[in-house]
Request: fold
Amino acid sequence: MRTPIIAGNWKMHKNVGEAVELARQLDEMVADSAVEVVICAPFTSLSSLSALGVNKVKIGAQNMYFAEAGAFTGEISATMLEDVGCEYVILGHSERREIFKEDDELINKKVLKALEVGLKPILCVGETLAQRKAGETENVVVSQTTKGLAGVSPELIEQVVIAYEPIWAIGTGETSNGKDANEVIASIRQTLAKLFGDEQAQKVRIQYGGSVKPGNIAEFMEQPEIDGALVGGASLNVKDFVGIVKY
Ligand code: PGA
Reply:
């Protein structure tokens, strides 16, 4: 049985005080949930969130660089994230791919480095609207999954979480429906089975993401292949995020 995982992606929102307050409230309100709950906060809040000593909620970052250390102005290493108490790191989010021109090769290096230091990557994959209309959804997610996970050992694959986020559904209020998302996620799991063996593929948690709200989360969570959600906008508000965790 895979433990469901619901992660909030705060993107570039919340100063330290706001982040700490939200995390404190959330931690209390979801304490009895069977779901694994993660907040992926901006870098500036990570050490304060760790110092807060949350019990239930786990802490993640939204990006990192693959090098160990060196002359990489503006970048943050996997070891630095681990040092401030992160357990997870989102990698290859579509905003990183589109706005910051990250490609599968770079994302793969980040995935490998995260695993090397014991961070759990949340690898994001998903198609654009044009790709969906052209019937390329499956090809795109299979290719992003395969390239993003190149070189990962079968023993470590269960540390990886995959987030299937159709790009046209992110922040738009448009969502995929449970059945369609389940089908795409099933094809991601088949890809994992080919790459890592069926037994290992069954252990990997695959989330849906894209305009997840308290009112639509159940539709996704009731699908057999969907193991949780990556939540952007609705994770910024404690009431909404708790409503999602307690679907
Ligand atoms: P959204 O964002 O929930 O605001 O659509 C999801 C994401 O980008 O991870």
